[in-house]
Amino acid sequence: MIEIGINPYIFDFGPLTLSWHGLFSVLGIALAVFLVGRWAPRQGISSDVVYSVAVWAIIGGIIGARLVHVIDEWGFYSDNLVRSVQFWRPGVAIWGGVLGGLAGGLLCARIYKLPAARLADITAPAMLLAQAVGRIGDVINGEHFAKYTDHFWGVIYTHPSTQYLFLNNGLDPNIPTHPAIFYELVWDLIVFAVIWWGLRGKIQPEGMLFAAYLALYAFGRFFILFFHTYKDWFGDLNEAQIISLLVLLITVPLLGYRARLSNKGERTRKSNPNNRARPQR
After folding, report:
1. How many domains does the chain have?
2. pLDDT digit string (tens) for 146-190?
3. Spatial distance between the Cα atoms of 108 and 126, rounded to a whole number of angstroms
4. pLDDT digits (tens, 9 = 90+) for 206-228
5. Three-state SS across the chain?
6. Is 275 part of any domain?
7. Mean predicted confidence (pLDDT) in 38-57
8. What separation in angstroms does the CA of 18 have from each of 30, 34, 83, 124, 163?
9. What range does the domain containing 216 cover?
10. Alpha carbons 145 and 166: distance in angstroms, whole number
11. CA distances in angstroms from 224 to 6, 195, 251, listed in the order given
12. pLDDT tens digits for 107-140?
């Protein structure tokens, strides 16, 4: 088994806390904005546009992440409404962040008449890397509880703060659990590889690369979530799985109806005499 004994909180001063999850989430967002700002000018979009859209997307992501979490834990927040809007407290949902960020970015693009589909395609691989970075903090924190396992890669969190979280949720902290959140980190990187090396520049029209990202991410996450111990919403399915299915119900038909693969970009590069290799001097 694997033991993780890191304090989940970097500092904790009353209502103000900074967890590893929070730190790596900020780092992931910063990485995504930086990468999109670097890639966008190659597609005819200025970095200033990226940063403007990023503000809207971040605000939408924060609101969405909190809203989906509050809905999932409504039994608690219905009696603590003030806590539901205390964004500095722990409690977010990744699907809310992704879809809320998408909504914020699309709203900004519509208001300022920006090429939303092209910008979304540029953002897709950066989002996957940002999610992977954020999951590093989740692995350290141990707050995404998973099912028990006797496999050698099972994880035990030994820090008292994390063990208290396990006990408070009816779990024995001394029994190894699946590193389910690490499975998600790996899936993020796999989807990034497919998007970056397999589909980028080949799938048309604009916007379909982002749709492919949502579909692939939702597909893998739906199955990985069976290793978690989240509250069931419908049968054996939790809230995140239901959202994953809804995303698939929208993106898969969309991709089947609109998307097509093309090697047009490759043919263009080969036919352009300026792109031919030149002898080194």
Report:
1. 1
2. 999 999 999 999 999 999 999 998 999 999 999 999 999 999 999
3. 19
4. 999 999 999 999 999 999 999 99
5. CEEECCCCEEEEECCEEEEHHHHHHHHHHHHHHHHHHHHHHHHCCCHHHHHHHHHHHHHHHHHHHHHHHHHHCHHHHCCCHHHHCCCCCCCCCHHHHHHHHHHHHHHHHHHHCCCHHHHHHHHHHHHHHHHHHHHHHHHHHCCCCECECCCCCCEEECCHHHHHHHHHCCCCCCCCECCHHHHHHHHHHHHHHHHHHHHCCCEECCCHHHHHHHHHHHHHHHHHHHHECCCEEECCEEHHHHHHHHHHHHHHHHHHHHCEECCHHHHHHHHCHHHCCCCCC
6. no
7. 95
8. 17, 23, 17, 28, 18
9. 7-264
10. 8
11. 24, 20, 19
12. 999 999 999 999 999 999 999 999 999 999 999 9
Could you tell me if residue 278 is inside a domain? no
**pTM of the predicted model as reported, rounded to 2 decimal places:** 0.89
Q: Are 20 and 140 in contact, with CB atoms under 8 Å apart?
A: yes
How far apart CA 36 and CA 38 sit, in angstroms, is 5
Q: Is residue 235 part of a domain?
A: yes
- State the pLDDT at residue 263: 66
The residue written with tokens 């979280």 in the block is 165
Is the residue at 139 inside a domain?
Answer: yes
Structure tokens at 199: 């589909």
pLDDT tens column, 23-37 = 999 999 999 999 999
